[in-house]
Amino acid sequence: MKLTSLRIITANIKTLVRFFEQVTGSSAQWYTDDFAELVTETATLAIGSTRTMSLFGENLITPASNNSVIIEFRVANVDEEFERIKDLIDNIVQEPTTMPWGNRSLLFRDPDGNLINFFTPVTVDAIKKFN
What we know:
Elements: E1 5-10, H1 13-24, E2 29-32, E3 35-39, E4 44-49, E5 70-74, H2 78-85, E6 91-98, E7 103-109, E8 115-121, H3 124-130
């Protein structure tokens, strides 16, 4: 089994896609006005409008209400990424900090309030884990 994508459902798809394009430096592939994907080396971040959920059923989601999932991106240098994106982010939860498990981490919220983590392994053990 392979995890291939994570999908965020939003009431403001254009705003959210633009935000992720800016912070990741990637261009989204739009398939319809209600669905876009940002493809990375390891997985895809899919973003769908609330209208797409009607294809699955009614009352399945509540956009902008995530309180338990963090979307994580491994980056080459979290401190450089912070300098590049800090003016794009309205809600920085934690500036770059080295965590006890060996990653240097930047935690912020996207426009819908989802937690986003940019991290760089910095200790020997953490670096080994990702090589």
